[in-house]
Amino acid sequence: MKKVMLFLMLAVFTLSMSSFTNVNEISVGDPLSCNREARDAVIQIAHMEEGVHPSDSDFEQGWIELHHELYLDCLNN
User: Fold this and answer.
1) How many domains does the chain contain in total?
2) Which run of H or E residues covers position 71?
3) Cα distance between residue 63 and residue 30, in whole Å
4) Rounded Cα–Cα distance for residues 74 and 71 (Å)
5) Is residue 20 included in any domain, yes or no?
6) Alpha carbon distance 48, 24 (integer Å)
7) pTM here?
8) Residue 16 is assigned to a structural domain of this protein
């Protein structure tokens, strides 16, 4: 649970900094934009935390759940 919370905090920080996507390209509430944002954040965090792509991780289900949370957060903001 602590690991998931750490990932969520890192994801929120990553999204707020928009280091991987131009802020002008983000369309909050748009499913395609939100999916891209969530995917990019999860990949970036997985590389920072484990040094691997999420699909190559032993924590793959956790990455899927994190993507889902970030996606919903983007849609609802």
Assistant:
1) 1
2) helix 60-76
3) 21
4) 5
5) no
6) 25
7) 0.65
8) no
